[in-house]
Amino acid sequence: RKAIFSGDAMHHPLQIMEPTLHLPVDWDVAKAAATRRKLLESCADKDTLLMTAHFPAPTAGRVVSSGDGFRFEFGT
Asked: Is residue 48 within 8 Å of 61, Cβ to Cβ?
């Protein structure tokens, strides 16, 4: 099983569903959104655990495709 630590790429669980949602900490809004989308695509629907730094506990879970976007299954 793989795991990816997102670091500061995401700060809120809503960014899973909407990677373009930006916060003031995103200095380059377009690059931040592209980075989030690439990160989500790299682990969606795979046996890859996404370990986030800023989500509420449990801070890890799986990214699952949902329509044209993604959703997060905490702790799986």
From this structure: no
Q: Determine which helix (DSSP H) or strand (DSSP E) holds 49, and give its type and residue range.
A: strand 48-51
3 state DSSP class of 42? helix
pTM of this structure: 0.90
| pLDDT tens-place string over residues 45-56 | 999 999 999 998
Of the candidates 47, 32, 39, which has an alpha carbon nearest to the alpha carbon of residue 6? 39
Burial classification of residue 68, based on how many CB atoms lie within 10 Å of its CB (0-12 exposed, 13-18 middle, 19 or more buried): exposed
Q: From the CB of residue 8, how many other CB atoms can be counted at a distance below 10 Å?
A: 12
CA–CA distances in Å: residue 9 to residues 32, 60, 67: 7, 14, 22
